[in-house]
Specification:
385 residues; alpha+beta; Creatine Amidinohydrolase, Chain A, domain 1; Creatine Amidinohydrolase; 2 domains; six-stranded mixed beta sheet; five-stranded mixed beta sheet; 10 helices; 18 strands
């Protein structure tokens, strides 16, 4: 299966109709741009993988959704679903025209998913000027919650992406060793991922950067020129999209040469955090329970979590719910909703030794209601020579 079936399209469009009714909206505008965490709505609504720039999906009661894109994206592949697309030279004008054609505006309610973080200011101002009597409301959370529970077809998309990442990790074990650069490893892994149908590759490496006083600070970034040496730990994080358009996260720790006690303890801390956090992702639990379980398990190994430890995942790499945002940062203004069967979440504890001497990181993707992560790759500290 290279595209999601039409039955999946119909399921999603029906959910949009329910959202419109529940939120009492005359129209719903779903904003997307080509940042990896913000372009999923176009794929979710219209099977379109945004290659560049930005665009909108538009849903109205008793109508099929439509897409609005800049005119220079007419060459962007359309996907397998028959969805009407309008191309505009000036997108803000096109957005106003689309809503007028749907009869939206007036004194009604216009919902925008992505109002705070994704929609362009000029587009919001164009709506406000064209529909001064309308109420423009943020529908981001309402949309996040209808796409949080994954169908069987969507879960297969997560699994196929995981299989690609596992194959990349196998290749890493063949390549990594003393004298090899992170960039050389990353190039080979990218080639394998692309050959297997992976897209939107987001490959990152993590390690402890030493300071003069013997402590370390965490490094988190693209694979670069660091040459691996005996005693290093290579943590390579795979985040990629599979052919069906779904993200996953997969990361493991690999020591170059025999690991020392501190490296083994950091691996044990992260492994314990993942096991405890994953076990807490059960139907009816709040996402914060997974964060608390992770923090407690990590602490038993003389380490602490540096930030929130996970989030929902799907056709965007970061979706609702957030694991630990309310626990670690205590700024989430909306009470978290209980977890439901079929929700997909990534857990990724980033931990540091209590003496600030070493860091640890791994990631796995879980489905609420299923035992264990999607990946079967061991979380033990791997060793290459």
């Amino acid at each position: 299966m290279t595209h999601l079936p039409l039955v999946e399209r119909d399921r999603r469009w029906a959910l949009l109709q329910e959202l419109l009714a529940d939120e009492q909206l005359d129209v719903l505008v779903l904003a997307a741009n080509d940042y990896r965490g913000h372009k999923g709505p176009l794929r979710w609504v219209g099977d379109l993988n945004l290659a560049h720039r930005y665009g909108y999906a538009i849903a109205a009661p008793d109508r099929a959704p439509r897409l609005l894109l800049p005119v220079n994206l007419a060459m962007n592949p359309r996907g397998a679903w028959d969805v009407h697309v309008t191309y505009a030279r000036r997108v803000s004008d096109g957005l106003v025209d689309e809503l007028k054609a749907l009869g939206a505006g007036g004194r009604g309610r216009i919902g925008v998913a992505g109002l705070a973080q994704v929609m362009k200011v000029e587009d919001h101002e164009a709506l406000r000027a064209a529909f001064p009597q309308a109420e423009i409301v943020d529908a981001s959370l309402a949309f996040e919650r209808i796409r949080a529970v994954k169908s069987a077809a969507e879960l297969e998309g997560l699994r196929e992406a995981t299989r690609i990442a596992e194959s990349c990790f196998e290749r890493l074990l063949e390549l990594a060793g003393p004298g090899v650069s992170e960039r050389a490893v990353g190039a080979e892994l990218a080639a394998r991922a692309l050959a297997l149908g992976g897209e939107d590759l987001l490959f990152l490496t993590m390690y402890g950067r030493p300071a003069a006083d013997g402590t370390v600070t965490g490094h988190f970034g693209q694979p670069a020129g660091r040459t691996l040496q005996d005693g290093d730990v290579l943590t390579f994080s795979f985040e990629l999209v599979g052919p069906l358009g779904f993200w996953m996260e997969h990361a493991r720790m690999v020591s170059i040469g025999a690991p020392d006690e501190l490296q083994q303890r950091m691996n044990a801390a992260v492994r314990a955090g993942l096991e405890a956090g994953g076990a807490a992702l059960v139907p009816g639990a709040l996402p914060g329970a997974a964060q608390r379980a992770t923090v407690e398990a990590v602490a038993e190994h003389g380490a602490s979590c540096t930030y929130w430890s996970g989030h929902g995942i799907g056709q965007d790499v970061i979706e609702e719910p957030w694991v630990g945002l309310d626990v670690v940062q205590e700024r989430d203004p909306v009470p978290p909703a209980p977890l439901l069967p079929g929700m997909a979440l990534s857990l990724h504890p980033f931990v540091i030794d209590d003496g600030n001497r070493a860091i640890g990181y791994m990631a796995d993707t879980f489905v609420v209601g299923e035992d264990g992560p999607l990946s079967t790759v061991s979380r033990d500290l791997w060793s290459v020579r």
